Amino acid sequence: MFGNMADMMGLMGKMKDLQSRMKEAQDELEVITQTAESGGGMVKATVNGQKELIGLELDKDLINPDDKEMLQDLIVAAVNKAFENIEPKIKEHLQKATDGVLPNIPGLDLGGFMK
């Protein structure tokens, strides 16, 4: 009878620890960054692990009002590439943050715990 209660208390403690670690890990994602480029480096986009665009650099030769659509396409391409490239860094960071708290479950994606 008391064994089950102790197991339940232990599980509750692990969940609180997991919640605390996840909060801390989410806060730390702000400093994880990824930069990607398009147009041969003429457009550079930088994102952070909280999936925010934090920087955008444009080569001055690209700024041409007559070719606005090309610039827009290059910006979208660079931003999307940066977001795609940061995903593995986010996953690795969250896995390290929960190491030892959760069992290693194949296919468990902790990205859903983010804001």
TrEMBL record:
**Which parts form a coiled-coil structure per UniProt?**
8-35
Q: Which InterPro entries match?
A: YbaB-like_sf, YbaB/EbfC
Q: Which GO terms describe its molecular function?
A: DNA binding
This protein's GO cellular component annotations are: bacterial nucleoid; cytosol
Q: Name one Pfam family in it.
A: YbaB_DNA_bd
Question: Which terms are listed as keywords in the entry?
Answer: Coiled coil, Cytoplasm, DNA-binding
The leader peptide range reads: none
Q: Which compartments does it reside in?
A: Cytoplasm, Nucleoid
Stretches that traverse the bilayer: none
- The superkingdom listed in its UniProt entry is Bacteria
Major subcellular location class? cytoplasm
Cross-referenced NCBIfam families: DNA_YbaB_EbfC (TIGR00103)
Family according to the record: Belongs to the YbaB/EbfC family.
What do we know about how this protein assembles, alone or with others?
Homodimer.
Explain the purpose of this protein.
Binds to DNA and alters its conformation. May be involved in regulation of gene expression, nucleoid organization and DNA protection.
Write down what this protein is called.
Nucleoid-associated protein FEM55_23225
